[in-house]
Amino acid sequence: MKKEKSVLHLCEGTLLALVILLIMDLYLLKFLQDPEVSYYPMLHLMEAALALLVVTLALSLIQRELLSRLIVKAFRDITGVHNKTSLEKLVQDLSNRPSTFGVGVMMFDLNNLKYVNDTYGHEKGDEFIQTFTYCLTRILDSDSFLARYGGDEFILIQQNTSLSELQHMAEKLDSLVQEYNTRTTLPLSYAIGYEVSFQNHYFMMEDLINAADKKMYQDKASKKIAAIRELAPSTHSRNTVIPAISSEALSEKIRQIQKSTGSSLSIALISTDIENFHYINDKYGYSLGDEILNIVYEELAGASFTILTTRFFSDVFVSIADITDLTSEALLSQIAKLDQQISQRIRNTYHVNFFRTNSGICFIPDAETSPETVLSCANVARRLSKKMIPPCCIYSREIDRQEKMQAEILHSFHQALKNEEFQIYFQPKVSPTNGKISSAEVLVRWLRDEKTLWSPAVYIPLFEQNGFIISLDYYVYEKTFRWLQKFSIQLPADFRISLNVSPLHFEEPENFVKKICELIRTYQVDTSRLTFEITESTYVNNTEAVNRVIRGLKQHNIQISMDDFGSGYSSLNTLKDLLFNEVKIDRKFLGDSLTENAKIVLQEVFHMLKRMGKSIVCEGVETEDIAEFLKKEGCDEIQGFLYYRPMCEEDFEKLLLAPRV
To answer: Which of 93, 94, 74 is nearest to 84 (CA)?
Structure first.
């Protein structure tokens, strides 16, 4: 480059000298008018020769200038710096060298170019990028090569350099940009990354460019996080609780973060609450509760992965996390450690006996996913986390599938009830002494087009949560009473039907008894054929209401069975005040096989129940060994797959009418 410029300057000097000589020659011809003078023809010849030389040299310089401009167009960008073709040629030349020692690469990414183009037009956008280019050219020296890398990205290849020199160039650029921003309405901002190849830190050219590019994107991400954190609530006084944010404001913040991060960061929304926070308020007071809310906020906001934290409502906080470099397992581990850190601080500061936070996580896939959807998914995961150890849960495809299934179940319930898609099934119980059917438990199945839609284990808990179970129970009772009205004449004299009672009915015990009596009168049911099964857990949790129902139903000659006895709540205290006519031993008590200790426990329980005059039913019996043991110990009825599976009305009627029964 320096040699080419020297030749150009020599040509320009020569042309200037020739022009001067030509002028002097013309001057002499003007004042020496006598053609007879001997040197006059020689002056004319010199004039012609000089004119020819001047024209030739001038044309050569013009040709060279045109050629130079063509070369610039071929190897320069619209901004005036080298283009990608020129860059590729230099990179190839440097790659062919024996080593890249002393070669440095700086990558630059101009922010907001698209915004300027979209808002002010492309002419303003060109001016915007040319301004940045001008700032870049101010940091160059004779060893610099600046090229446009594409779009709003630039690359600077610096030869004979070091990391400290590149750092100095970066600082100089920062100073230039800051100075420009003080006098403009469209400030410049950019991301930068640089790397140098030197001894014990060697890079091939392609790797050197990639390393600088990676550092540039890291700088871009960190600057975006810093900008996003400015959206966070301002600092608050310790004397006041961190204010809650509205749903609309939170959604807007999430949108801003989605838009700002784009594809440069992987982000997730974390919904966190405090376990039994109402207990803290009730026991320790609202003032201490507010202090605890502030501490939880500080810890969440100070986490290394947190971009933004805000209080959503009550004791629920929402955080946006940068999870770019975190696996799911690593994220769960960090949140579990954060929970331990918060809990330890609260316990040490306030001597609270028990403290725990629960966190639900939803990965934000793209900017198209609505903030409301992300927040809803994180809250679902947070509710599920309360049953987990550690108490944190990531919203997954399986959870999404279950949520959609549950939504479909709840949405379909009323129409299914109207269409009578719920059918009653019967599971016979047999007398161990003769193997004959002595009674049956009524169960419910959800059928559509004669196919089972969902297992009762799926929809019954859902219906108990939202109260639909009340309507379903009365529906089952009515269908059963209607069947009894139709079929009771063909039943054995002592045959009984068992019906399950949901715990929700005991919130209004008198109303439940009244409703049952109305159904009995409507269908003229023989009450001596009825047994209502109430779970042991329901009795333990609401003993008074259960006893009121038992007394009310017993007045109408209806028997009561304690269902699921031995499922986890059994105690001698429970047996002591038992108003039930019958006790139904749970399958969990029996297990798949009976150990010697289990046999001893059952023998003693049977002995006590028999002395108290209670009937004993064992459910979930699937092996001959257990059935034989129960028969020997005096069990009154056995129910399980060993004898019969649940069956529809038609099959049950055929079974009852068969000669062997």
So the answer is: 74
Give pLDDT tens digits for 276-289.
Answer: 998 888 888 888 88
Assess if CATH 3.40.109.10 describes domain 231-395.
no
Q: If you search the block for the tokens 């934000």, which residue do you land on?
A: 364
Fold of 84-228: Alpha-Beta Plaits (3.30.70)
How high is the pLDDT of residue 70? 45
User: For residues 342 and 34, what is the distance between their CA atoms, to the nearest angstrom?
Assistant: 112
Distances (CA, A) of 575 to 541, 568, 570, 605, 622: 15, 14, 8, 9, 27
CB 532 within 8 A of CB 561: yes
Torsion angles phi and psi, residue 194, rounded to 5: -145, 155
| Position with higher pLDDT, 83 vs 502 | 502
One fold for both 84-228 and 231-395? yes
Homologous superfamily (CATH) of 414-657 is EAL domain (3.20.20.450)
Q: Between the CA of residue 10 and those of 53, 87, 559, what are the distances in Å?
A: 15, 30, 121
In tens, the pLDDT along 453-498 reads: 788 988 999 999 889 999 999 999 999 999 999 998 889 888 999 9
Nearest to 535 by CA among 551, 549, 556, 554: 549
pLDDT mean over 126-151: 90
